[in-house]
Amino acid sequence: MIHLADTVTKVADKARGGVLVCGSHGGLYPGYLAAKAGVSAVIFNDAGGGRDEAGIGSLAYLEGLGIAAATASNMSCRIGDARDMAARGRISHVNGLAAKLVVKVGEPCADAARKLEAAPPPPGAVIGPVSEARSLYPVPGQRRIVLIDSASLVLPEDAGQIVVTGSHGGLLGGNDFLALQVDAFAGVFHDAGIGIDEAGTTRLPALDRRGIAGVTVA
Questions:
Q1: pTM for the complete prediction?
Q2: Could you tell me the pLDDT band of residue 20, with boundaries at 50, 70 and 90?
Q3: What is the spatial distance between Cα 179 and Cα 39, in angstroms, rounded to a whole number?
Q4: Cα distance between residue 85 and residue 112, in whole Å
Q5: 3-state secondary structure of 160
Q6: How far apart are the first and last CA of the chain?
Q7: For residues 131 and 12, which has the higher predicted lDDT (pLDDT)?
Q8: Residues near 106 by Cβ (< 8 Å), separated by ≥ 6?
Q9: Which of 218, 213, 169, 158 is nearest to 193 (CA)?
Q10: Where are the strands (E) in 26-155, listed by range?
Q11: What is the tens place of the pLDDT at every residue in 107-145?
């Protein structure tokens, strides 16, 4: 079965064993979360590739866990919007397991997802943490600089602080609160190559409306 999720941080249990079409970027941390969710296959947004091809970093990682994976081009569909991926997305990268299921670069995301339904169940490999997901940047000052791999890792204690995230700058579901789920002083995100409809920067107006300084980095 094919399941849609705007973010891998909010994947329902019913996605276990299914194909996940996910609006998250295809970096290592989302790949880790998809593997923990027990999906048999996943399609992410490639976030424009990025430095060191970080936007597709999950593909090799997931192949090592026996999970077929692909990405859709950020210029074909909006990052953070799974429905748009299913409607307009075009495949940009595949791992070896997806290639064995004849998922091809350039084909519609919806077609690729249907092919991935043939992927076998996840092999049940032990999913260890991929990195330290949360830390503090040690500099003096009135405000802490909080480093998190995903915006979903903010804590109430981060209110009023500077939060630097590994998340893309796309707003999820048009919900201003989901731009950053704490009233920080500032939030920093990745622009995900900006992409179609300038989707990679749509958190910024939402943060502005909430009185939170917001920036994206390339």
A1: 0.93
A2: very high
A3: 26
A4: 11
A5: coil
A6: 35
A7: 12
A8: 90, 91
A9: 218
A10: 41-45, 68-72, 91-94, 134-137, 145-148
A11: 999 999 999 999 999 887 778 777 768 999 988 888 999
Instruction: Give the Cα separation of 176 and 26 in Å (integer).
Output: 23
On whether the CB atoms of residues 101 and 118 are closer than 8 A, the answer is yes
Question: For residue 148, which amino acid is it?
Answer: I
Each residue's pLDDT tens digit, 154-210: 999 999 999 999 999 999 988 999 999 999 999 999 999 999 999 999 999 999 999
Q: Position 65: which residue type?
A: L
The domain ranges of the chain are 2-116, 134-217
Q: What share of the chain is helix, strand, coil (3-state, %, to 5)?
A: 35, 25, 45
What's the gap between Cα 112 and its chain centre? Answer: 18
**And the tokens for 191?**
């622009």
- Residues 215/92/49/61 CA torsion (nearest 10 deg): 110
Which pair of structure tokens corresponds to residue 115?
């092919």
Calpha distance 193→207 (Å, rounded): 19
Q: Is the dihedral of CA 169, 173, 174, 180 positive or negative?
A: negative
